[in-house]
Van1 protein
Amino acid sequence: MRDTWKRKKSDLPMTMKNNDIFNPHRKGKNDKSLVYKMLIGGCIALFVFCYTLSSTWGKSVDISNIPENDINPLYAQKQNNLKLENQKLKDKLQSIENGIDSLQNIENDANNALATPPNQNDQLPFGVEFYDLKDYEGTVDGKNNDEIVLLLIPLRNAEKVLPLMFRNMMNITYSHNLIDIAFLVSDCSDGDKTLETLYELTAAMQESKLIPILEAKEKQTKGKGVFGSSDLYLKYMPEDYIKNVKKSYSPPFHSEYEKPFRSIQIYQKDFGQVIGQGFSDRHDIKIQGIRRKLMGRARNWLLSTALKPYHSWVYWRDVDIEMSPGDILEFMMKFATDFDVIVPNVWRPLPTFLGSEQPYDLNSWIESNEGLKLAKSLDEDDVIVEGYEEYATWRAHLAYIRDVNGDPKEIIDLDGVGGVSILSKASVFRHGSNFPAFTFMNHAETEAFGKLTKEMGLRVGGLPHYTVWHIFEPSEDDLIKISKMERKKRRFGSI
Ligand SMILES: *[C@@H]1O[C@H](CO)[C@@H](O)[C@H](O)[C@H]1NC(C)=O
């Protein structure tokens, strides 16, 4: 053994040789102690090696299940774990690349890495507020989690429909003390009293004194039609529908009905909308694009002025809804696990001689190949609007997918959305989505909002069999037709 060492020694690198040369008198002693040292070192190394090996086994696998001296299964298992881990990472990367992985998951990972935030219940210095924004993300059980909803309502020349709108707001069963409301009044015509009426009704509602005022207003307008124009056409509306409306606006009301809301803000701002609100004006294709961009701008003003850190949800609501389920917020929040934006179906009733009912909001749709092709053929700045021959998109419209007996809980992915009733997680806007007031992917306003939100990796859904009813506003033609039929009836006793 000694010889072996000696022989080996001669093979050692130069340093060792130099050492020998520079310390000749200690050579004999040195030779011996070096061997000892190496032996001891070898023992320690062996011990450490064995110890490490055993402790590593103990950590990664349960030794008791594995036969002694059988190292291969352990090794295989380790390899397997590594492979799984690897695959997980790969999948994650892939899904991020595909944009499928919701931003939520990525954020949750980031949240886990956060330091402990200050306790909100601690006394913060005067004027200092702290919000951990992950507490305001919006969950399926918003009402029980005390999640605050921001209800946003843009208004323009809306004096006539305000009583209807207030009835609809009161009918919301989501706790009123969890709802902040913000109105934006813009570009009303001379003589229009939207702002004044809004203020009057708001003040009364917050003092729980609104019902008598509404009843008085409703009485006043009787004979002139609940909605202002002529109620002659009501005779020509489907009987069942009218019965439903009457029931919807009559007591008994639920316990939340007369309760004041958490807060109400009224903003006034004009955007120079020169385009009239008349039916034919509103639906002229040439001005639709401009109109939609102005509306987008108004929505963004309203949103960015009203949105606060403690809002978990934003609910957009048009004024001219006639009937909507009272628990629409609770209902739509149920889809929050998978969806960030949710819209119901929107229909409107029609006089029986026009078919009794009709899909109303055509802005909620699933993109089609024809739609994409059409977009490619247009100028970068052109805005596609639905419902015109010139823009045949052949898209699947949420409105047309409706089946009266369909499951209201069915939800489908959408690309574009209409603005009549949009529930969105507040985080969608915090991420930076908005209502483009410019052409985005050949769309503007709410439809561009849908596309943009989806483009950002968030999910937009529509409920084809869950319906909100828009009011029917008879056109000039409808009214002429109705008065003709009335005259005939008077003359001949029947139609
Ligand atoms: C109020 O809510 C009830 C219950 O969901 C509903 O049937 C009714 O149509 C609603 N009323 C209005 C005016 O939308």
User: Anything to note?
Assistant: Residues 54 and 307 are 58 Å apart (CA to CA). The chain is about 45% helix and 15% strand.
